[in-house]
Structure formats: structure tokens, C-alpha cells
Specification:
globular; 7-stranded parallel sheet; binds guanosine-5'-triphosphate; 2 domains; 316 residues; single chain; binds magnesium ion
Length: 316
């Protein structure tokens, strides 16, 4: 499938990825829902169920029957630790199998190939690509552990943070920086003991955080049975309506674009640094520094000047 191949290009990064991004750019971005949380908290199972609910369409307040079904839904399962990609990792593939024959649901796992900018750049590009391919909704699943994973999750329109019942889970989420990025919380595995305590812990933490015009609701789900997932989808829709009516959606997306542009710039500059450090002038500079005839600061200036001169000559 062409879309899958284009996503592989985006995943690899570099010039070709930039070309794809350019093609996909001028289209309406899809609405994105991030699902993040600790490993094994049920994110994939929940994403699976959420897709099922979402396919029925965005709920229209007061008149459920009028919702237009979503033509296509994309799911990107981000796997920060895996060097493998190009299709769902085994566990996700098994769990999401029921959608596998549904052409309206596109599921893809993405891993970093270690390219500059990494997933933080590849994910928004992939989302844009799905938007250009006609997907109005993309669900992004990320394991909320490292800084980069939290950043990827927070770069979605509605961020769902999943916790499970059990001592200190809410606290762990807080430590991982998930409290700040959550638009809504889900206590999944609602069939297990400790749901009440988990909900209470989250509410207490929310009480302590600075009040905003949207207090993240705390929902309970049993992803394995689908219990609570319709309510989750309704709440995602409420959050979207809130973002749209306050202008916050526009602002958030603007901030994200600035972030993305900064990352593209950083990747470009780092690539330049890599090229400079691989050149003969660099080796010369190291030798001169070691002979005590030059300091690294001056050497860096010289290298940059030399490069700028080379560029000007190349352009002229
Ligand atoms: N009892 C119970 N088990 C659940 C529930 N939701 C998910 N599970 C189980 O929890 C395990 C992990 O579920 P996943 O959906 O793979 O969790 P995940 O967060 O995507 O896991 P990673 O992607 O590996 O971080 C599976 O065995 C699920 O069947 C639930 O609501 N109740
Ligand atoms: Mg998963």
C-alpha cells in the first residue's frame, strides 16, 4: 500500500521525508488523540476500543443519531525502544487484528531509526500524511516513560493519560510528567481492585494543580470488555468542542508548529555540525589546538566562517 511506504520514508527522515512532508502540508490536519501511560496499562486495547467507538462518528450533543460515521481512522503505535518498524509489533498486531480486515482502520507502528529529530519529527509528519490521505482522526499511542515519549504524546490535540488501579500509579504518572499534559485521565482495568483509590489520588493531584478552564475529567474503563469506552469517546468530543470554542485548538497547533520548525532547524544545524566534524579542516583544527596554537572557541569560529565562505562561493 502506498501509504505504508510513504510512512516508511517519513520514519527514516532526511531529505525524502522532507519532500513527503511538503506534499502533505497544505491539507487540513486530522484531529489527533494521544493515548499514553505506563507499559502494560492497556493503551493498545483501549485504542482498539476507542477506534470502534470513534468510527460511529463525533457525537452531536443531544442528538446521538445524527453523527456522521468517520470514513477512516488511523492508529500510530509509537515504539520508542524498538529498532523494528514497518508494521505492527506482534502484540499490537494480535490485539488490533479485528480491524485488520477493515480498510477504514489503518494501524501502523513506528519506531525511531535514530534519525535526527527522531520520532518527535516523524510523528507529526506521519499524522499530516494520514490527514492528506483522508483520515479525519488519528490515534497516537505512546508509552509514557521518557522525555521524548511524553513530548510525542503531548503533541496531540487531546491527550489521554491511562493509569491502572494499584498503589502509587497516579504518583508515577505525576513523576513521569504526565499530569501536566493530560486532558483527561482514564483509570483502566476498572475490573481490578483499587479503582476508587486511583481515582481519588488523581483528583487530589488535580486539586493541587493550578486551576484552568478545563479540569481533566477522570474516567474509568475496562478496555478488555469495552466498558466505559463510549463515555471516553464522548469526553474526547467534549474536549474537542472546548478547544474549538475557546480558540485553544488553534493556539495549541500554532505552538506545535513552532516546536516542529525548531526541530527541523535543529536537525539541519546538527547535520551541518556532523558534516563539519567529518571534514579535513576539523582534523587540522584538532591538531592545531593540541599544539597549543588555537583554542576550541576560536577553532569553531574559523570552521563556521570557512563553511559560510564555502556556501557563499557555492551559491555565487
Ligand atoms: N483485567 C484487565 N486487563 C486489561 C484491561 N485492559 C487491558 N488489559 C490487559 O493488559 C495487558 C496489556 O494490555 P495492552 O493493551 O497491551 O497495554 P499497553 O499499555 O498497550 O502495553 P504496552 O504497549 O506494552 O505498553 C493485556 O494482557 C490486556 O489484555 C482491563 O481493562 N482489564
Ligand atoms: Mg501497546
Amino acid at each position: 500500500m502506498a501509504l505504508a511506504r510513504l510512512l516508511t520514508v517519513v520514519e527514516r527522515g532526511g531529505q525524502a521525508s522532507g519532500d513527503v512532508a511538503r506534499l502533505a502540508y497544505a491539507t487540513t490536519p486530522p484531529y489527533t488523540v494521544g493515548i499514553t501511560g505506563a507499559p502494560g496499562s492497556g493503551k493498545s486495547t483501549l485504542a482498539n476500543e476507542l477506534v470502534r467507538a470513534a468510527r460511529r462518528g463525533w457525537p452531536t450533543p443531544g442528538d446521538r443519531g445524527a453523527a456522521d460515521p468517520l470514513p477512516q481512522v488511523g492508529v500510530l503505535a509509537i515504539d520508542p525502544s524498538s529498532p523494528f518498524s514497518g508494521g505492527a509489533i506482534l502484540g499490537d498486531r494480535v490485539r488490533m487484528q479485528e480491524h485488520a480486515t477493515d480498510p477504514a482502520v489503518f494501524i501502523r507502528s513506528m519506531a525511531t531509526r535514530g534519525h535526527l529529530g527522531g520520532l518527535a519529527l516523524a510523528v507529526p509528519e506521519a499524522v499530516r500524511l494520514l490527514g492528506a490521505a483522508g483520515f479525519p482522526l488519528v490515534v497516537v499511542e505512546t508509552v509514557g516513560v521518557g522525555q521524548m515519549e511524553v513530548e510525542v504524546a503531548s503533541a496531540t490535540d487531546t491527550v489521554v493519560v491511562v493509569v491502572t488501579p494499584g498503589w502509587g500509579d497516579a504518583m508515577q504518572a505525576s513523576k513521569a510528567g504526565l499530569l501536566e499534559i493530560a486532558d483527561l485521565f482514564v483509570v483502566n482495568k476498572g475490573d481490578r481492585p483499587g479503582v476508587h483509590e486511583a481515582r481519588r489520588d488523581l483528583q487530589q493531584m488535580l486539586d493541587l494543580s493550578a486551576p484552568t478552564d478545563w479540569r481533566p475529567p477522570v474516567l474509568t474503563t475496562v478496555a478488555t470488555s469495552g466498558e466505559g469506552v463510549d463515555a471516553l469517546w464522548d469526553t474526547v468530543a467534549q474536549h474537542r468542542a472546548h478547544l474549538e470554542s475557546t480558540g485553544a485548538l488553534e493556539r495549541r497547533r500554532q505552538v506545535r508548529l513552532a516546536q516542529e520548525l525548531r526541530r527541523v532547524l535543529t536537525a539541519r544545524v546538527l547535520a551541518d555540525v556532523g558534516a563539519l566534524a567529518a571534514g579535513a579542516s576539523f582534523d587540522d583544527a584538532v591538531r592545531t589546538i593540541s599544539e597549543g596554537k588555537l583554542d576550541p572557541y576560536r577553532a569553531a569560529e574559523d570552521l563556521l566562517d570557512e563553511r559560510a565562505g564555502g556556501r557563499a562561493r557555492g551559491a555565487g
